[in-house]
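Recall the central idea of this unit: under ordinary conditions, the amino acid sequence of a chain determines the structure it adopts. In this exercise we apply that idea directly, starting from the sequence alone.
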Amino acid sequence: MEIFGHFIEKMPDNCEHLTIVFSPTSVPLKQRWRNNGLSADFIADYLQTFFVSSDTDNGKELISHETKYMAKYVVNELLENAMKFSEQNVHYPTRISLYLLKKQLVFYVTNTVNAQSAENFKQLIKTILDSDPQSLYFSQMEANALDESEHAQSGLGFLSMICDYSTQLSWKFEIIDAPPVMQVTTMATLTINES
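Accordingly, the structure predicted from this sequence is:
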């Protein structure tokens, strides 16, 4: 097992959470990509509808519309990456979990990748963690404008989450099968903005 960043293995048992599991064989990848936006909408709506209670002392909702939008964006980015880079030759599901803590939303997205993709991803993660996010974000946008490769791992989605929404990211890699298949879990933590 390898950890990058401040990865928390287990959330408290008593915190509110939601988990959605996507079967790898039920829908073709291209169609699943179209569904990522629907899944992000669902999770953001679920967050606001079921996880939110009102502060009766001052009449404010504890989850702002801004936080709902940030959650939707982060979920969409995490799912797009998971679906785009998942190993297609294995039958492990992709999972996303949302945990509601007192002042934070914590997302875990788990998918599988082959050994080569895992190594490329680890190098990208090291670059993200060892660089100034703003500078790397702009240089990657310029590089992506020149390279239109569909499967380029530029990290723009991760960098956007960090730079635009102050998301804290961390990762866990585990070998789960032979021949080696890597299970990757991305943890994304958002601070809740009260309305």
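Strands lie at 2-4, 16-22, 54-55, 60-61, 94-100, 104-114, 168-177, 181-191.
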